[in-house]
User: Fold this.
Amino acid sequence: MTDISNDAYLARMAIVEACAFVAAPHVRMRPRVFPDGNKWCCLYGDDLMVGIVGFGDTPEEACAAFDKAWAHERTPAARVSANVTARLNEAAPDLYASLKEIVAEWGCPNTPKWHRARAALAKAGA
Assistant:
């Protein structure tokens, strides 16, 4: 390569790197970056429970963790749902297994079989 073609290549690579940086979620979404104890926190949202967050030893590490969380984290509602399911599995595995068997045998709770069972229980005074 000649000197000018090498310079042109380096300029193109610098532009590509700058575009990738500008496209990063921590640049586009402008989260708050602040110290939290002995770590740095990069937070988008009102608080840790509903926002997207990244922690690191430096602001750069916190922003990198935020970018990873932005791309791979579940929504807060999905995290809560997964947590509840996990706790149900841990706390009452027999109950959960029983419920799965009932649903497998009887079908969805809105089927006529369930309505007849509810009506029979109501008629019996249960």
In short: Strands lie at 32-36, 39-44, 52-56.
